[in-house]
Design goal:
The chain is an alpha+beta fold and 239 residues long. The chain has helices at residues 3-8, 11-20, 34-44, 63-82, 105-119, 127-135, 158-176, 191-198, 231-234; strands at residues 57-61, 145-152, 180-184, 204-213. Strands 1-2-4-3 form a four-stranded antiparallel sheet, sandwiched between helices. Helix 2 (11-20) packs across helix 7 (158-176) and helix 4 runs antiparallel to helix 8. The longest helix is centred in the N-terminal third of the chain and has 20 residues, at 63-82.
């Protein structure tokens, strides 16, 4: 059996990619070869989907097209801060988060946010630093590759389930190649800017974005790894 085949049939290699994946928030400028990106997407396309619909569409941004999108959305992000009344202008196509948070999800969200901000020395109420850190999303955390994912609007909600499996495949395939990623729903509010920039049609909606590249292992922010609930806390054995 070849080394490649051995890896494919070794479940420990899959476990390792899952366990070592985290949302990187600082990347090195080192380019990622197009062939590597193609290989990642080639593996990811094996994701399951209802009736094999394969509803995903991927837009890859590098170099000038990525930098131009960063400039546009960062400017809009700054404008929205100065003029909150423009909120209706920047809205996501679907509710990624609940409109009303309840526990235990609210508690987990707060723990996630304040743990990250605490690590970075951002105190509660420091709106300038919060704004700057949030805007790191729209700079792809300096990653050399930005990915945008769209879905035809005619597709049902189940396609978002399919999409989740596709996105996970991308993240794990990237990790297996030594790369890191950060899936980002933050881009969704700026779909009105993103979609025309990437050449998406009016029949498409933005599902999310993703940063991809080589993680900056020296960056403090990349020491932040979120906790997970124990299996017994979410599993019910029906006997």
């Amino acid at each position: 059996m070849s080394q490649v085949s051995a890896k494919i049939h070794d479940p420990a290699s899959v476990d390792a990619a899952i366990e070592n994946r985290f949302s990187a928030r600082a990347f090195l400028p080192t380019p990622v070869p197009r062939e590597t990106l193609h290989d990642i997407l080639d593996v990811a396309r094996r994701a399951a989907s209802g009736t094999n619909a394969q509803p995903w569409k991927v837009y890859v941004l590098q170099g000038a097209p990525k930098d131009e999108l960063v400039q546009k959305v960062c400017a809009a992000h700054d404008e929205l801060r100065q003029h909150p009344e423009l909120e209706t202008k920047f809205r996501a196509d679907y509710d990624y988060y609940p409109r009303h948070w309840v526990d235990p999800y609210l508690a987990r969200r707060r723990q996630n946010g304040w743990s990250l901000y605490g690590l970075l020395g951002i105190e509660k109420g420091d709106k300038d630093k919060m704004h700057a850190q949030h805007q790191r999303n729209f700079r792809f955390f300096d990653a050399p590759v930005g990915l945008m994912f769209t879905l035809d609007r005619v597709m049902g909600q189940g396609s978002l389930v399919d999409y989740g499996m596709f996105l996970q495949n991308i993240m794990l395939a990237a990790r297996a190649r030594g790369l890191h990623t950060c899936p980002q729903a933050a881009w969704n509010d700026y779909a009105s800017i993103v979609l025309p920039h990437i050449g998406a049609t009016a029949e498409e909606m933005l599902v999310c974005g993703m940063s991809l590249g080589w993680a900056d292992e020296a960056a403090l922010v990349n020491t932040f790894h979120t906790p997970r609930e124990e299996v017994d806390s979410f599993t019910h054995w029906v006997e």
